[in-house]
Here is the input.
Amino acid sequence: MDETAGIDLSALWQSLLVQAEALLGLAMRPWNAYQLIIALVLYALAVVLSRAVRPRLRAWLRTREGWPMWR
Here is the structure.
């Protein structure tokens, strides 16, 4: 394999690091950081609510008669 045709991994890695640093810089602007925090809080709330509601919903669905299994 020709050496010039190979991928320069160090240049690729450096480019990825520069892009990651730029993304982190954008995410740390105040409003973007607030949006990120809000999204994480909403995700955590959804996980907690799903764990609380899932057993009751499944129990209720098991009492349904005459419904197709996919419903």
Observations:
- The radius of gyration is 24 Å.
- Residues 51 and 58 are 11 Å apart (CA to CA).
